[in-house]
TrEMBL record:
This is TSN3 protein. Its main location: membrane. InterPro entries: Tetraspanin/Peripherin (IPR018499), Tetraspanin_EC2_sf (IPR008952). One of its GO terms (cellular component) is membrane. It is found in: Membrane. It comes from Acrocephalus arundinaceus.
Amino acid sequence: RPFAQSLLRFLGLIFWDTAAAQAFGGVLVILMFKNYRYLFQESFLSLPGWLALTTSLILLPTGVLAVSISVKCSHNKQGTLMYLLLLLFCLEMSSAALAHSYCVRTASRLESVMGYLVHQHNWTCAQDPGNNAVDVIQRKLQCCGVHNYTDWLRISYHPTCVPESCCKEKHSHCRGDLRHVDQLSEEGCLKKREGQLSFAMLYIFWFCTVLIILELLAGISNSILMRHQPFHELRIL
């Protein structure tokens, strides 16, 4: 019983701290798909982020109850804590499963979408940087093409240049001239975009997995303390 109380108090404090980290992961996923909505039209892809935000809000009262019960047991509080832990378990299992599934699904889709946008791009040498989806991505991520700048040469009628959005920021005079390859971004946009996507989704997946384990420990600790309550006081369950 003393060990269960100490563990429950510790886990309650952990739940407070992890609420902010969980909210960060949720906001990261939501903003990522919002900023690149022209690549992913499906609005449900941000669902793991919204589930993570919901989880972070529920973690706060859960932590308060866990600390309170570790100080003074109350059958009403213990029953409520069990319900909250069960709700958190369901939310985090769903969020982790969706994050893992979307990480695999969107990675394969991303290459075809990027390739399509590159093929649809229409540019000429020495023009001002465009504002279509490809130019926005290339400037924001400092990348060029799907895999590298040679992707533009395969579909280009201008074999001497690439879009100006491929230029590195430090070269303000760059016009996409292939005679100055050193002024172009070396890395392709697919690799950088996949890196951002994988980081956000794996962050949600592993964070939820760790929280599930902690919540199971909290549930076990609460169950040990509930054994010391008379059965008739646990009618709330």
